[in-house]
Write a structure and sequence with these properties.
Order of helices and strands: EHEEHEEEHEEHE
Distance between the termini: 6 Å
Helix content: 25-40%
Largest sheet: 5 strands, antiparallel
Strand content: 25-35%
Shape: elongated
Mean pLDDT: 87
Low-confidence stretches: none
Number of helices: 4
Structural class: alpha+beta
């Protein structure tokens, strides 16, 4: 029986490249001279720190531009509020979103079932598996999912006959 998986994956190598490019650009830009701005990525978070709130917002704009150029969706980023840091500096933490949580998975399954197509959708950890008897039905589901604007970027993988 043909099937495919709906996932929300993040290419961490491209995110690392964007972070490195952002750090390099911040070092070279005139408006960031003497601010000791920091851009770093931990496991599931990017931290931007600079002299004041304005510089943090400018660094965030640079980071977002670099991430888009690397082909990573901005839907994967969840920026927190700008908070004060030590010595009068400002900081923002950006959470990296990966995987489909339970609520979003149920929403995807509901959208698929509402179409009344002859396919089954099952939630498997952080992905949704869709299977059906006809390949055409599965391709219709993929087309439908691409038209719906979800808060996460969706990829369709493991298409099997």
């Amino acid at each position: 029986m043909p099937s495919f998986d709906i996932v929300s994956q993040l290419n961490l190598a491209e995110v690392d490249n964007a972070v490195q490019q952002t750090a390099k650009e911040i070092l070279q830009r005139y408006d960031f001279k003497g601010t000791d701005s920091i851009v770093q990525r931990t496991e599931k978070e990017i931290t931007l720190e600079s002299a004041d709130e304005f510089k943090v917002k400018a660094a965030l704009d640079v980071l977002q531009g670099k991430i888009v150029k690397r082909g990573v969706s901005l839907k994967c980023l969840k920026a927190g509020n700008i908070e004060p840091a030590a010595k009068g500096r400002a900081r923002v933490r950006i959470e990296l979103m990966e995987g489909i949580d339970g609520d979003r998975a149920r929403e995807i399954v509901k959208k698929i079932k509402d179409t009344k197509m002859k396919v089954q959708a099952a939630i498997q950890e952080q992905q949704v598996r869709v299977s059906g008897k006809k390949r055409d039905d599965l391709q219709e589901v993929i087309a439908l999912m691409r038209t719906i604007d979800f808060p996460l970027p969706l990829q369709f993988i493991n298409f099997r006959e």
